[in-house]
Design a protein that fits this description.
Length: 934
């Protein structure tokens, strides 16, 4: 019966986690639509360029240049080009401007903004690795309609977005392979040299990736950054000095910037500001300017210079400095056309009557009247002072109109699907509360609260209510689903939400208002006030943008405080107990002895403080890595037998060798060609050692290997389940030692030491209580595991900014981009502390025997709680803050920092639940297959 109950608890936890993730996905789809769909029909916005103004005929200006070159350097931040890094590009620029880049600062949405003139959705950051064809209108579509030749070389993202718009293309198919610093860029330069010999193209797009890759792998301050910038400078010089470049406009810019750590995706100035340098044969007509414009402003400006229609989706303004070489009449037409385009979008979006009553409509009327008066003097060549005053006033009013409408249209693009948000929120909240109640009232959850049973009548009622809600939601346009199949599938999460909500409501009523003939239900799990207070503080702190940006400080403070608080309580209990036994004699000796007993936990607190400053220990990183690997090997020794330990030690030596060959730690001085040749064999040997450790651990689970002898020299585990989980844990730790940065490897043994000593502290605290409770020990261990895991997550250098994601581990040992392997390695590296802390808790619970702290082994076994209580409670504590944060997101949906601070955090939280879900699935599979041997 106990085994069946444990299996049902695992199945119940699996269902709750699955439903929670389904709700989270629905919420994210509703909160971040896959694309910004405008409310108006785009075909209702006039496409053709205006040809009349108050009865006066207008002639759209011809192309301003014969050739246009968009020279895009990925991750080129504004302060990178200067006199020393790019001397030619810096000195010969006719104009140096800056562009503000909207978030998310990743490539695909930035390319959309450059070509369409509209803002991208935040969720595009998740779609950055899965490109789809760009269906919206763009500059490239306009050029293709005019049969203009457009050539491209560089990042293959362009080809995915515009598969048929390029006349010639030379795409780098391994754009995501970040270890490629030079080869891809050489191919782009070769394509550039080939295109310069041709004279048939109107637009040439070059997208260099090497700088971005260097930033991801080695950081923004790598010496290779300057070398790469000089390489880009030479490519610019090739263009400027080529004999065929006569009437041209070269635009040097970046798609986004680079954070100080080398990544991008966040909202720091280094990531959101990029340079825009302009080059032309006729620099004398330009005037200097230090103004900053929006990246989307490049689209309508280029459309006017190319003499094509402004893309329908464009909401950008013009960059006046780029129009200075045009005749005044053509400049006036450009300002008029852009204002006219945005006014038409505003009429469709907000209504004709609303536009007519607006201030910007008055400005527009004044500008057009002045423009009309200017037409005759401009065409006759009259450059009088009055004409110049009219020109400046008309230009000013056109720009005011454009900026005002652009701002309003930008705000109107923030759209939410409240139907999906409501369904997702209901499902995540209901599942979180359901599993929390189920764990808190573990002993009566099934029998009295009926939380673990499937009730057919309630299911039918939920089905009827779900269908009605689905129909009503569609009738009220609150659920906007494109296909009938999606509408039918949406019934399932609605029904699940209704069913779980009824369950939770009934349970709360029974808890709060028990029948007269029964006793009030009591909690099955004790809830220590100190743990609850720390957990509540952490959860409530999610409501502040500052606390989210600096969340690591919250975890550092609460984690250390909690360990210190438990240590002091345990110390007080031990002293009190010993003092009573000795009738108050030798109190100072008792205190000293008790303090000495807990010396290790204070050493742990010192270690945790030192871990905050790992980034400052670069001068001793070689010694630190050697010491860390040796200590790590010693800590893993208790999970392995002698042959495994030997191969484990060899693997760690190979990890050091790999880092040494890459120049990251002190190593034998070898010629460059030998160093490159040794890297691959070292990695192959490492994988062989890892495989041997894995096979040696798993051999005991094979039928022919079953025997009664101990795996660990007589001191081994009692079951195949524990042997397999320990082998998995060891192999996973070995792999993470390869993936971690050099300075972060010391975190791995420190994590094991911290968890070990914290668990001993929790056991000591429980055994010194007046009334011992095994469940109280479990609660302390679970919550402390979560706190320790989060502390080490931030010690590693992670944050709530997407720019701190380290992509380098995903490419170790790879020669091309494999999204599955890259995703697995990056996730394992980033969430190493979270994954291994949970696995270590399970292994520890299965190994635990409280006899070592003076408590006889109880029935049912202490280890039985691994799947019946530990896993469900851990899942509940992971889900509950995430569900709370989803609720906060709805309240903060119009917050100033919703996309820069709150949105990255919600992605991190949901992905954390997903990672736990995958680890839980793999662990549960072992419980299902081998639990009977425990």
């Amino acid at each position: 019966m106990a085994m069946e109950e444990n299996k049902s608890r695992l199945a119940y936890t699996f269902y709750m986690l699955t439903l929670f993730l389904c709700g989270a996905v629905l919420f994210l789809i509703g909160f971040f639509p896959a694309s910004y769909s405008v409310a108006e029909q785009e075909n209702s916005v006039p496409i053709d360029r205006p040809t009349t103004l108050h009865g006066e005929k207008l002639e759209p200006p011809p192309p301003s240049y014969n050739s246009f070159i968009l020279f895009l350097i990925d991750a080129l931040r504004d302060d990178f080009p200067n006199e020393s890094t790019m001397p030619v590009a810096y000195d010969k620029a006719c104009m140096k401007l800056s562009l503000h880049v909207d978030i998310p600062t990743v490539t695909m949405p930035r390319l959309k903004s450059i070509t369409t003139g509209t803002l991208s959705n935040f969720i595009d950051i998740a779609l950055n690795v899965g490109h789809t064809e760009q269906v919206e209108d763009s500059l490239l579509h306009r050029l293709k309609q005019r049969n203009a030749v457009v050539s491209f070389a560089g990042d293959h993202t362009w080809v995915h977005l515009f598969p048929t718009e390029f006349t010639r293309k030379a795409a780098n198919n391994d754009s995501f392979y970040v270890n490629d610093f030079y080869e891809g860029d050489k191919n782009v330069t070769n394509a550039l040299e080939s295109e310069l010999e041709k004279k048939d193209w109107t637009l040439l797009i070059l997208h260099y990736l090497g700088l971005d890759h260097i930033g991801h792998v080695e950081g923004h301050d790598s010496p290779k950054v300057n070398h790469k910038l000089k390489e880009m400078d030479k490519a610019v010089k090739k263009i400027l000095d080529h004999k065929n470049m006569d009437n041209y406009l070269l635009m040097l810019t970046g798609d986004h910037g680079m954070a100080d750590g080398g990544g991008h995706g966040g909202n720091t100035p280094a990531e959101t500001t990029v340079p825009l340098y302009l080059y032309s044969k006729n620099c004398s007509k330009y005037t200097t300017s230090t103004k900053r414009y929006n990246q989307i402003d490049l689209t309508p400006t280029l459309a006017l210079l190319l003499s094509v229609e402004i893309p329908t989706m464009s909401i950008g303004c013009l960059i006046p400095e780029m129009l200075q070489t045009l005749p005044l009449e053509h400049q006036m037409y450009a300002y008029f056309y852009n204002a006219h385009h945005l006014l038409n979008k505003a009429r469709v979006k907000f209504g004709h009557e609303s536009v007519r009553r607006s201030d910007y409509y008055v400005w527009y009327q004044n500008a057009t009247l002045l423009h009309k008066e200017l037409l005759h003097p401009l065409r006759s060549g009259d450059g009088s002072g009055a004409s110049k005053v009219h020109y400046e006033n008309a230009k000013l009013n056109y720009l005011r109109v454009a900026r005002e409408i652009s701002g309003q249209l930008s705000e109107s693009l923030v759209k939410f699907d409240y139907g999906l948000i409501a369904v997702g929120l209901a499902l995540t909240t209901a599942t979180s509360l359901h599993i929390v109640l189920s764990v808190l009232f573990l002993d009566v959850a099934t029998e009295q609260l009926h939380l673990g049973r499937l009730k057919l009548g309630q299911l039918l009622l939920s089905l009827v209510v779900g269908i009605i809600l689905n129909i009503v939601g569609h009738m009220l346009d609150q659920l906007i689903i494109s296909t009938m199949l999606q509408s039918l599938l949406l019934v399932l999460p609605i029904v699940a939400s209704v069913y779980l909500t009824i369950d939770v409501a009934q349970a709360l009523i029974k808890i709060a208002l028990p029948p007269l003939y029964s006793r009030r239900l009591k909690l099955s799990i004790p809830l220590p006030l100190s743990l609850l207070a720390c957990f509540a503080i952490r959860t409530l702190s999610l409501g502040s943008s500052s606390f989210i940006e600096f969340e690591y400080k919250t975890w550092y403070y609460l984690g250390n405080t909690l360990i210190l608080l438990i240590a002091l309580k345990t110390l007080r209990r031990r002293i009190t107990k010993a003092n009573v036994e000795l009738d108050g004699r030798h109190l100072h000796k008792i205190a000293s002895a008790c303090l000495w007993q807990q010396r290790k936990i204070f050493v742990v607190l010192l270690l945790l403080t030192l871990m905050r400053y790992l980034h400052r220990l670069t001068s001793i990183k070689s010694t630190l890595m050697l010491f860390a690997l040796l200590l790590f090997w010693a800590r893993l020794r208790k999970f392995t037998d002698t042959p495994q330990a030997i191969f484990n030690g060899i693997a760690f030596m190979l990890v050091y060798s790999f880092r040494g060959l890459n120049g990251q730690v002190h190593f034998f001085v070898l010629p460059q060609h030998l160093t490159a040749r040794f890297v691959l064999p070292v990695l192959v040997l490492f994988w062989c050692c890892l495989a041997l450790v894995f096979v040696l651990g798993y051999r005991t689970a094979l039928p022919q290997q079953h025997s009664s002898h101990s795996l660990l020299d007589g001191q081994g585990p009692k079951s195949n389940l524990l042997k397999l989980l320990q082998t998995n844990l060891t192999c996973s730790f070995m792999l993470v030692a390869l993936l971690h940065k050099v300075q972060n490897i010391v975190l791995l043994p420190t994590l094991l030491i911290t968890l070990d000593e914290t668990y001993k502290l929790c056991e000591a605290y429980g055994t010194t209580a007046r009334k011992f409770s095994v469940r109280l020990v479990h609660v302390y261990k679970i919550i402390m595991t979560i706190f320790v895991a989060r502390m080490f997550y931030f010690y590693q250098g992670n944050s709530n900014s997407l720019s701190t994601i380290d992509l380098t581990p995903g490419y170790i040992g790879q020669t091309s981009y494999n999204p599955i392997l890259v995703g697995f390695f990056v996730t394992l590296n980033t969430y190493s502390a979270e994954i291994h802390s949970f696995l270590y808790l399970i292994v520890h619970t299965l190994r635990a025997d409280l006899r070592n702290v003076g408590i006889i082994q109880m029935l049912p076994s202490y280890a039985k709680a691994a799947d019946s209580m530990v896993t469900p409670l851990y899942a509940a504590l992971v889900m509950l803050p995430a569900a709370f944060y989803l609720c906060l997101m709805v309240g903060f949906r119009y917050h100033l920092f919703i996309y820069s601070v709150f949105s990255p955090k919600v992605l991190y939280d949901c992905y954390t639940v997903l990672v736990f879900y995958l680890v839980f699935l793999s662990t549960s599979l072992y419980f299902k297959l081998f639990k009977q041997d425990a």
